[in-house]
Write a structure and sequence with these properties.
single chain; 238 residues; alpha/beta; TIM Barrel; eight-stranded mixed beta sheet; 8 helices; binds iron/sulfur cluster
Length: 238
């Protein structure tokens, strides 16, 4: 039985994958996204230690609420940093017949990650920017890593949803959204593209941690702006 570090556990989530889901937020992330809502997940030594059995126990209590579509999503932080732990959890969930989803930036590729994908039903790939310069500048990660991960998902025929935070002043232009939508043509594993309008809800969290939120002065997109964007790009879901 493996031990991992989690940030938190949400028993009835409805925004991280299909249906009603238990969501496990893993601790630790090597990226530093400008728009990150969870800076308290960054520290690999933070959070709390749990075993896969302890998590399974909590998840099984939520199972009556999952219905036909729901299941378990592991998010973060970056779950790929603890891929062996998540793989052991997912393997047990698959034995129970529970749907598994992995919410990741796709920044790690190794044997444990490959094993993890074998027991993952759905990948929610956070695809953050559509050009190399912004990807590196606003996440600390090369876009090639996300593209490589997406290619591996395509090669495995893994059902994938792309998730994209839409941030005024950073990636809020039609050319960028068009490039995002075009990924669906290149990668047939992509079944949905979810647009997530930027929110500043995390500002207080940054202040309480005493760290600078780089987007503190960035406005949230208005509902009208998002509605007009969706009208121009009906390919966008969610
Ligand atoms: S990958 Fe996720 S948790 Fe990590 S810095 Fe980016 S938004 Fe935050």
């Amino acid at each position: 039985m493996l031990t991992g570090r989690i940030h938190s556990f949400q028993s009835l989530g409805t925004v991280d994958g299909p249906g009603v889901r238990a969501v496990v937020f893993m601790q630790g992330c090597p990226l530093r996204c400008a728009c990150c809502h969870n800076p308290d997940t960054w520290d690999v030594h933070g959070g709390k230690q749990v075993t896969t059995d302890e998590l399974l126990h909590r998840i099984r209590r939520c199972r009556p609420y999952f219905g036909k579509e729901g299941g378990v999503t592991v998010s973060g932080g970056e779950p790929l940093m603890q891929a062996a732990f998540v793989a052991e959890l997912f393997r047990a969930l698959k034995t129970d017949g529970i749907h598994t989803a992995l919410d990741t930036a796709g920044c790690v590729w190794n044997a444990d990650v490959q094993t993890l994908l074998d027991v993952t039903d759905l990948v929610l790939l956070d695809y953050k920017y559509t050009n190399d310069e912004d990807y590196l500048r606003y996440t600390g990660m090369k876009r090639q890593a996300a593209d490589r991960f997406l290619s591996e998902l395509q090669a495995r025929g893994k059902v994938t949803w792309l998730r994209h935070v839409y941030i005024p002043g950073l990636n809020d232009n039609d050319a960028s959204i068009r490039r995002l939508c075009e990924l669906r043509k290149t990668y047939s594993c992509v079944q949905r593209i979810e647009l997530l309008p930027f929110r500043r809800l995390c500002l207080e969290k940054y202040q309480s941690m005493g760290i600078n939120f780089p987007l503190a002065n960035t406005p949230e997109p208005t509902p009208e702006h998002i509605a007009a964007l969706r009208a121009r790009f009906p390919e966008l879901d969610g």
